[in-house]
Amino acid sequence: WNNPLGMVDLDGKEPEVPKLNSGFFGTAPSEQTSEISQPMEILEEIKRRDSLPEVIWVKKCANLIESSIAAMSEDDYGDGITAEIRKATSDWNGVLLINTTGNIGMGGYVFAGRQYAIDWHGNVVVFFVDGTGVETSESAKLNVAVGYLNVPLAEQVAGLGTETGVSAGNGLIAGLSWITANEDDGKYIASGFMADLGLGEQSGVLGVHESLSHAREIYKWNIFNAIDKIWFFLGDIFNGNKNEEMCKN
Length: 249
What we know:
Layout: H1 39-50, H2 53-72, H3 83-88, E1 95-119, E2 123-149, E3 159-182, E4 188-202, E5 206-222, H4 223-239, H5 242-248
Antiparallel strand pairs: 1-2, 2-4, 2-5, 3-4, 3-5
Helix pairs in contact: 2-5
């Protein structure tokens, strides 16, 4: 009957549906465990088995696996709510930088803080950044800076960086800088800009500075993945479909 998964042929003469009183499908009523030899009865038994919750669950798992494989073959955009955004931004370059640092010095200075890098692909990488520099004035301040670096992925911000810029003010100090990203051996990767605003003191209304920094990755995550997980979770709640979530796990 061309159904080797659903039937057995014990005597080489006639296929039959195996007894369903044990194993994966649980215990079935006694009248459904008897031998079945008529084609129509066999078809009815197949339909009955296809309606069992356990079988439906297995089919859903198979469909999920199949769709996941298909999605991976198409640049792995997935089947979440962000799939179209991922596809549209797949070849976009550029990383948004947000820095929170503090520095102190007289002619030469040191600084340290956190750097957050966010790219168009949803990656968010947090770095510990520190470094040294020289400036034309004495200063001690806390800064918040926002910038842009022309690299495709946020993780490429790691390593050495340079900053050349000017700052103006006292008490409230604003600055603008030209920045670069480099590999640990100093090889240039890309450049960008940074604008900062800080609270502190500097000896002079106008200052010029040059610094060398090093960014070390602390942790990273992906915004799109987080949105998709929330989307699937809410879908499971509203649809009451826990089997699909079990299958994903």
